Amino acid sequence: MTGGVSRDAGAGAPAGRNKGEQEPFPEEKAPPPSTPGLWQPGLATTWWQLAYVGTIRIGTPPQEFKVIFDTGSSDLWVPSIYCSSPACANHNVFNPLLSTTFRVSGRPIHLQYGSGTMSGFLAYDTIRFEGLVDESQAFGLSLREPGKFMEYAVFDGILGLAYPSLSLQGTIPIFDNLWKQGLIAQELFAFYLSKKEEEGSVVMFGGVDHSYYRGDLNWVPVSKPFYWQLSMDSISVNGAVIACSGGCEAIIDTGTSLLIGPSSVVLNIQKIINAKRSYSGEYMIDCSTINTLPDIVFAINGVNYPVPASAYIRDGQEGTCYSNFDEGRGGLFVSDSWILGDVFLRLYFTVFNRGNDTIGLAPAV
Fold first, then answer.
1. What pTM value is reported for the model?
2. Residues with catalytic roles
């Protein structure tokens, strides 16, 4: 989750840390099905939460955890057997005593997300997922997970895929270790987020499978190698610019479910799409208007990326529909900055290229 941001219930980028804790394109190859690094996390949903969740295994012998693969943060953490919070009682917990490859550092850590916090300690162990074996990987083990953020989450922990500059000081994030240990062919990873529940989503490490997108990838420079951040040209409806006039910044974030922008701008968009604020604070829309509402077009590096009403409106319970736009809170949104979350990523296959600090976008199949 992103710094100082109030995040929805997906995952998120660290909003901040305690002092002392912080602060020509490559040839694309479509890996054959047997290639390590191409694998499928599932889509898990609850009534209040939409999250793309994959399974990793930690330790020797391996202990299994469900994690969000989050491009809005850089650290990996899971609950520990020493955690005293109710959230840990509802999730898989790591037992260091059962792993022969476990090493503890004794260093306390505190990770703060827009939706909650995690306090614990730093450790090292072997991480496995779908043929990849990452040895001596730094990761966090929670002692406390206060609040409701994690208590009802469909995942155990978070695996961050943002830049090392966002990670705990002195640690190497998991993607950097995969590259450093020669476990992946190319210094990139990619996401295909399925529109179907429970199946079809894919995260690819070290290669790109062309069958998941149409046409060519449009490459956009990373504007600041911290988050996966890019410069956006404008946001328009029916050819008229409604936001980001003259340009603004956006973060591509798999750990956020919605499209999040500055409060005044998002309120204006809610009016344009005729969304009404409910008592719960969410914005409700008449479901019958989905076929008549216009696309909202995000222009990035000279290319238009339309988001249709079928994407920015979600079905709720009992025939109620809701807006997938939300207001950002905190320092990131002092200026005209955005987070493009899963609503955007379900429409556009995305490659995160660390080799040359670019983001590739193309219409998803």
1. 0.86
2. 70, 253
